[in-house]
Amino acid sequence: MRLDETEAGVLSLYSRDPRHWTGRDLSVATLLAGMATGHIVTANLVQRHRRVTEQLQHALTTRIVVEQAKGVIAHAHRTTPDAAFQLIRAHARRNRVTVHAVAHGIVELGLRI
Description:
The chain is mostly helical. It has helices at residues 23-77, 81-94, 99-109; strands spanning 2-3, 6-7. Helix 1 crosses helix 2 (81-94) and helix 2 (81-94) crosses helix 3 (99-109).
């Protein structure tokens, strides 16, 4: 089962008794294999798109929290957002946690650095 350059599997035809497969039988099998291949390829594509969408949504959510934390720290230290980010990143590295974890602590738990 192939669609363009994508191989999706194999269609095997069986019969209980020995038989001669007619051209019509093989044409129907080819049609069904094509339909199944299209479904498999489409389902894989949808799954990949869903995964990318989830990753992008996570990145956006993470970025929002980091931006909020930058604002909190910039205000507290009376500095620029870029300098605040450097403080957040340095704190994350010192404590071996992610920038997102530090940002979450700042925004949700009142962490001050």
